[in-house]
Amino acid sequence: MKTTTCYMCACRCGIRVHLRDGEVRYIDGNPNHPLNQGVICAKGSSGIMKQYSPARLTQPLRRKPDAERGTAAFEPISWDEAFDILEKRLAHIRATDPKRFALFTGRDQMQALTGLFAKQFGTPNYAAHGGFCSSNMAAGMIYTIGGSFWEFGGPDLDSAKLFVMIGTAEDHHSNPLKIALSKFKRAGGRFVSINPVRTGYSAIADEWVPIRPGTDGALFMALIHELIAKGLYDQPFIARYSNAGELVNADAASDVFGLFVQDDASPVGNVLYPQNKMWWDRHTGRPVKTHTRGADPCLTGEFTLPGGTPVKPAFQLLQEQVQSCTPEWAEGITGIPAATIRRLALEMGVAARDHKIELPIRWTDAWGETHDTVTGNPVAFHAMRGLAAHSNGFQTIRALAVLMSLLGTIDRPGGFRHKAPYPRAVPPSAKPPNSPDQVQPNTPLPVGPLGWPAAPEDLFIDADGGPLRIDKAFSWEYPLAVHGLMHSVITNAWRGDPYPIDTLMIFMANMAWNSSMNTVEVRQMLNDKHDNGPDKGEYKIPFIVVCDAFQSEMTAFADLILPDTTYLERHDAMSVLDRPISEFDGPVDSVRVPVVPRTGECKPFQEVLIELAGRLKFPAFTAADGTRKFKDYPDFIVNFQTAPDSGTGFLIGWRGKNGDKALVGEPNPNQWEQYAKNNCVFHYTLDESLQYMRNCNGPYLQWAQDNGMRKFKEPIVIQLYSDVMQKFRLAAQGKTRGRQPPEHLRERIARHFDPLPFWYEPLEHDVTEMKKYPLAAITQRPMAMYHSWDSQNAWLRQIHAENYLFVNPGMAAAAGIEDGAWIYVESQWGRVRCMARYSEAVEPGTVWTWNAIGKAAGAWNLGPDANESQRGFLLNHLISDELPAAHGRVSNSDPITGQAAWYDVRVRVYPAEAEARTTLPQFDAMPVLPGTTSVVKRVFQAYFAGQGEFKARLKGVKKS
């Protein structure tokens, strides 16, 4: 038996793979793994069918010279040929114009490597899937409290009394959350689910509060209103650990209006995070530097500084912001009765106030005050994509983070707990490129391609204010696009806006199907050619490289296919430098080690990047004499350091030449072996005094800096009021001398970059006939599936082989729709035909379906008549990636972060023809690719035919 760490999905649970004569027989959960503790879901246990999937790609493929894209006509080539093609093409791009190469990755769990590759290449055109997943969640919370849900933080259900889950699909963090919820419920905790749909976790909630999609921000504003009005916020917590008492310039005529005033007598310290803000001390009645010993800030009121400047505390401005956000106001937007909103606010406030937790843990804050105990307010929240995937998601999530902060729940027992390496500074110190001069031939970028802007000076724009990335991230269109806009890449590249690119490399992202908002149009763009000019007859996106383990809808449009390995065939690292699996009590990282040989000629994408980096002579991957530093990916993980002799690398366990160090230490040549002997996991437990209040825990901040978790040790003050946002607003208002947005974007920036959270109608609604399209349409991932990668799994197909549109019975009956009937679902952007299914577990104004069950005919090596293509459908056909605007078109995204607004679409439903038997639209069946049927499919079929035949055919695969 071999033990490894699985991440078929992003949960990344520990598994045990049981082998017989070298073949996988079954998979179960690893009871010694800290994340899932032996619990496993359908995805994990069905991993054997992923390994032997008939959709497996087994050899490099090149589009035939006379074949059109989309026809899936390929010929096998060797890896030497594939690398030769890529080396020549990429070397030319790098030597001439590096930004003409774009690398975008989907469910990439190794972004520290892919981001490093892009940085070393010198292209700014890199991002992972976050922009179309939950970029708003990360940005909205990190720009407020320095951490976010999921890998970087979560609800402490071991100590909570009240748990509120909002906008979370049933598969999210599934095994750890199922374990935590089970314990929480058995301990008597109360669980409230706020969601348009009641599925998954919500099915065991004590109360389901249905809400209209895209209106959560209005609910949070009303809850904040009630907490403040009733005095149910944690005044001592926000006074000391947030910027609630920091004084804001209230002189509307000033060019620093809305920014925090500073104490000129105090040293600035770190210019990125100056510690010279001011309070109005209630004891002395005068302004003082924040955290002056013995001072207590006024949170409300209006004051005048000695020089005559009018100021207000940030909390006063928040109170003014929510003054009109009454429960009655929110009821009209959310559909939740005002009385329910009042009751929820009271329940939250009373639970936080009257059920305080006190732990006998002595700790010292960043300003030198020692506290004898750690206290907590046991109200925990969890939220994800249901909040994020709207064009108002950033401000919605800011409102949630402010609500959590007012309740005093940040990094305290029973509330939201950070996970190392978080919390980060607000915003984190990493910045994107900010000048076209930083992109030079044959030269790495001076900084990573992604970052966290703090002011207009951090934007990546040209002298005219135009975007410099192909996806327009970090431009005036999407200033805080911390995860990029993967959903805009193909449209922009096709249009040549802001410039054309040469080569697009896509890893593990099905951009021709469920990873695009406008699937039909994207498929056309990928196949579109120039009509005239010097490039007449050439593809508008000249060269597309697709790296994946499976034959998908996207592979049909590739010029070059690179076959990736499965998760059971390769080494991987869940690194603290990247997306770790840390626990509340300290950093945790993990690895995956191969348990079976690679199938056919498959090669891990990590190995592909290491090979290309060596061939292209990237400085970080080659020695002074030009020779390669790393022979392969495992060697890279062991020996790479963030800076020469820093001792900080991808893995924190068993560092040092003898493996006797943790967190920081020299490379250990036996590091992989040590992980393999220890369940593939390393867990470092912090001293209890460092486990809480980490935003402002002085010894923790010092520890984090000493061990490479943070660059600086300044306290991370919770930002109820964001002067980062105000700096962008001032620029839009023309009050600053530096960078200012183009005229057509001034109003957009000034409106949305409010330093305090607010709710606004999703942008798509402004261009939609709401009476004609009265229903919100959303998708969820089922717990048994993970995007399209799992919905071709033979065992999982028995659970979900087709999908319905779930509709409220009352709404459906009024529209003349019967349960199980064929219907049309129509938006202003498109129409699909599918089957309807009645469900009381959906609020009347919403319809929903499972994501990515529907397939194009023949894709994933499913038969052309498979249920997935004939009775399954894709809601993406109804969604547009762009919206009409006064100055052309804009991405259908959050105007602050560029997060894809998947859930803003509005639809209507009506009965289909009586003779309807299949879903629409339909596409020509995709042919089988070379190397699939001839190798893997036969092995897959033989698996059920008997051991002798299975072994014989598997032996043939290994030889091939």
In terms of topology, how is this protein built?
Layout (H helix, E strand, L loop, with lengths): L1 E4 L8 E7 L2 E7 L12 H4 L1 H5 L9 E3 L10 E3 L2 H18 L4 E5 L5 H11 L4 E2 L7 H11 L7 E3 L6 E5 L7 H13 L3 E5 L12 E3 L6 H14 L5 H7 L5 E3 L28 E4 L4 E4 L13 E2 L5 E4 H8 L5 H8 L3 H17 L2 E3 L3 E2 L5 E2 L2 E3 L2 E5 L1 H4 L4 H14 L9 E3 L70 H7 L7 E5 L11 H9 L15 E6 L11 E4 L8 E3 L13 E5 L12 H11 L17 H7 L31 H7 L3 E3 L14 H9 L16 H10 L10 H10 L22 E6 L6 H4 L3 H4 L6 E4 L1 H6 L7 E5 L4 E8 L7 E5 L16 H4 L11 E4 L2 E4 L14 E6 L20 H12 L3 H13 L1
Task: Tell me what you see in this structure.
This protein is an alpha/beta fold. It is built from 27 helices and 36 strands. The strands form eleven sheets. It has a seven-stranded mixed beta sheet, covered by helices on one side. A six-stranded mixed beta sheet has the order 30-32-31-36-29-33. It has a four-stranded parallel beta sheet with strand order 11-10-9-21. A hairpin with a 4-residue loop joins strand 31 and strand 32. The longest helix has 18 residues. The radius of gyration is 27 Å and the shape is globular. The two termini are about 25 Å apart.
